[in-house]
Amino acid sequence: MTTFGDPDAGPVDAIALGGDAVLPFACRHEDGTGSIDTVVKPRAIQCALSRVCGVCARPLTRPVAFVGSTDNADDNTFAFPPCHPQCALDLARQGLAAEIVTTGGFDMIRPSRRGGPVAFRPNSVIDRSPVMPAI
Ligand SMILES: [Zn+2]
Question: Residue 59 C-alpha to ligand 1 middle, in angstroms?
C-alpha cells in the first residue's frame, strides 16, 4: 500500500497558499480568510493564553521566538505572537521579518485603549539575529 505524505507532518492548523507559503495561525480569521501581514487580535491573545505557536498552532516549548522588524527588536516589543524557533525562521524567510529574538518567556501587553492591538514583550532575550531572506 502506498501512502502519500505523513498526516502528522504538516502544520496542524494552517492553510497552504501555494508554494511554501502558509497562512500563519495568528493571521487567520475563524472563517479561514486572512492576510499574511495582518495579525488577527483574538488569535494573538489565544496564542499567548494557550501557549501555542502563532504559525502552526502547536503547543510552544522553550525557547520561544518572536519575529519582527529591527525597530521591534530594538524596542523589545512585537506584534506577532510567539512561535517555535523553526516556525519563526520559516516565516521570516518569506520576507516578513528582519529579526528573530528568542526568549525563555514573555509578557502579553494588553492595549491601553479599547480596540488597540496587543503586543508581546520577551522577558529574557536569549538571542537576537538578523534574518537573511531566502532568494
Ligand atoms: Zn510552530
Answer: 8
pLDDT at 73 over 70: yes
- Name residues with Cβ closer than 5 Å to ligand 1, which is an ion: 53, 55-56, 84, 87
CB neighbours of residue 126 within 10 Å: 14
Distance 25 CA to ligand 1 centre (A): 9
Query: pTM here?
Result: 0.81
Q: Is the pLDDT of residue 18 over 70?
A: no
Would residue 53 count as lying in a domain? yes
Per cent of the chain over pLDDT 90 is 60
The reply to whether 54 falls in a domain is: yes
Quote the ligand 1 centre to 125 CA distance (angstroms). 19
Cα 95 from chain centroid (whole Å): 13
Torsion angle in degrees (nearest 10) through CA of 106, 130, 68, 27: -100
- The range of the structural domain enclosing residue 40 comes to 16-130
